Inverse folding.
């Protein structure tokens, strides 16, 4: 295992999927390669939009960089906010085939694993920081049942099994305007706002402060 000297952050984005030409997650993440955030260096990695392979690539990147913070980013087409995912569930239920043609239905991400894991990011603190920066954001209580939930569950499983000091979580982001023009009525967020949001999130997450209690739940 190669250990880098400087404390580091691993940011991941995804390859395009579902007929899109781009994935805004990788568009935003790739802008941040080599960035310094409060003494931490940012490493980036594009993950394939594939069950199994995405988690293998994530594990390799974690092994390579030994980051203190792992933030995985994915596209949630149609959502209007930066979505701070609270929970990952132990299920793969693919509405469409992944980029390798696989479509698992009702299989576990990790056989024998717990039903769910919570992120260990201070998501309420992050929510307030984003709102202060005038970036629309929300807590999300589902990362879906596709490749993003798969990756978040695998990440939190790894952290819970091996090293609880590593912070990890998943962020869903809206379409970019260039995608939304092909999905009439769908919300979008520009690339600069998304990359700024990721900087705010990283800055807040590495402060290692306890989360705060503010209501940000839903009634449905
Ligand atoms: N979004 C998909 C998978 C890759 C991505 O960017 C999801 O939400 O599961």
């Amino acid at each position: 295992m190669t250990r880098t000297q400087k404390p580091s952050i691993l940011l991941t984005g995804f390859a395009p999927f579902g007929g899109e030409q781009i994935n805004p997650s990788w568009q935003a993440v790739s802008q941040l390669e080599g960035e310094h955030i409060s003494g931490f260096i940012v490493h980036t990695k594009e993950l394939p939009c594939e069950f199994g392979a995405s988690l293998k690539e994530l594990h390799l990147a974690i092994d390579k960089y030994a980051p203190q913070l792992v933030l995985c980013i994915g596209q949630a087409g149609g959502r209007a906010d930066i979505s701070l995912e609270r929970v990952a569930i132990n299920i793969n239920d693919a509405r469409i085939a992944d980029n390798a043609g696989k479509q698992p239905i009702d299989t576990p991400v990790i056989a024998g694993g717990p039903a769910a894991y919570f992120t260990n990011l201070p998501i309420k603190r992050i929510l307030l920081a984003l709102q202060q920066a005038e970036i629309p954001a929300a807590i999300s209580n589902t990362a879906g049942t596709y490749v993003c939930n798969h990756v978040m569950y695998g990440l939190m499983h790894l952290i819970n099994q091996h090293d609880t000091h590593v912070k990890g979580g998943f962020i869903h982001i809206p379409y970019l305007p260039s995608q939304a023009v092909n999905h009439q009525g769908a919300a979008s967020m520009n690339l600069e706002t998304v990359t700024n949001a990721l900087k705010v999130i990283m800055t807040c997450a590495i402060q290692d402060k306890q989360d705060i209690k503010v209501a940000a739940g839903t009634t449905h």
Notes: The chain has a mean pLDDT of 96. The longest helix spans residues 147-162. Residues 79 and 174 are 5 Å apart (CA to CA).
